[in-house]
Amino acid sequence: MNSKKGFGLLLASGLAIAACATFKSETAKREIASKESWAPTSAQKLDSGKIEELSSGGKMKLKTAHLIIDNDRAFQKKLEMVRSAQKNLRLVYYIWSDDYSSSLFNAEVIAAARRGVQVQILVDFITNYERLDLFSYLESAGQGNIKVKFYGLPPEEIQRAAVYMTIPCSKVDKPAADQCKNEKLALLSQMGNPKQTWFSQMFLSGMYGRNAALISLATKIGGGFDPAAYKQGPPPSPQKLAQLKQFAKIVFQAAVKNDAAAKLKMQLALTNYGDDLNPIMNELTGRLPFAMGGGDEWDHLTDYTHHKLLA
User: Fold this and answer.
1) What is the rounded CA–CA span in Å between residue 194 and residue 191?
2) Do residues 288 and 156 make contact, with C-beta atoms less than 8 angstroms apart?
């Protein structure tokens, strides 16, 4: 088989595995309100007790509650709460925008801060990445009374993985399975194991900003990765491609999930088919940050907060 062509397809498969790994957790069981439970009265006339009974918020206790089913009225209610705030405002939002209604809301939040209200804002980092300057403005305009924090900032493991993917390694005709990985780990040690470099910042900016061109530049210039070099020669057969994808899954389970059975399968494959798999393994573990650990952090990479809370 053509190792370079096979690696190009395998790396694409490996990237898909790494990027699409999702975190699955058992959803807490809760009793869904039956249609009949709403029958005695209209939604607008439900009292606080009934709203608490039908709420999916568990054992949350409510002093007073109002069910608002009109978007405009809900927005006006938020403005009223901001305008009437005297000491503290706490806000948790999925999207914090700068359109017309959001600008009006921002103006009221700033006004509250300027009259002495302590405002704490928690927003989703991935969703609001392109508006980081807006939050800097809010903090500045709030004269020290607005504090913004982000949910889903890249943890240290992701930052170090970005550094790993954007540093180069030497190219040889017949590399060992872990040559590139070992070179990179040695280089990182010499560099003092930094959490960020210029190219890693470019990579993360591309990832969170959904800019494929930035990711490509960071890995191509910083990491010396050129996808075009792996398109030479005839493509592998469908059977060989299926085997490569299966091998990529085994490597992912062994390196990221620390699965003992997968580690054994990987070693057996490398022992029996080393001439074909060593160059692929070398590139795979040299380009993807398996050696950096942090598999759980990659599982949670696309987690976000979808709350819209104001208190």
Assistant:
1) 7
2) no
Distances (CA, A) of 46 to 19, 26, 53, 73: 45, 32, 10, 17
The phi, psi pair for 120, rounded to 5°, reads -115, 125
Q: What's the rounded Cα separation, in Å, for the pair 180 and 284?
A: 9
Read off the pLDDT band of 239 (50, 70, 90).
confident
The alpha carbon of residue 57 and the mean position of all alpha carbons in its chain are separated, in whole angstroms, by 26
Q: Is the pTM of this model over 0.90?
A: no
Return the ∠ at Cα 196 (arms to 93 and 166), rounded to 5°.
Answer: 110
DSSP letters for 96-150: ---SHHHHHHHHHHHHHHHTT-EEEEEEEHHHHGGGHHHHHHHHHHTTT-EEEEE
Which residues are within 8 A (CB) of 210 and not within 5 positions of it... i.e. 6 or more apart? Answer: none
Question: Do the beta carbons of residue 95 and residue 124 sit within 8 Å?
Answer: yes
Full DSSP string of 223-278: T---GGGG--SPPPPHHHHHHHHHHHHHHHHHHTS--HHHHHHHHHHHHHSHHHHH
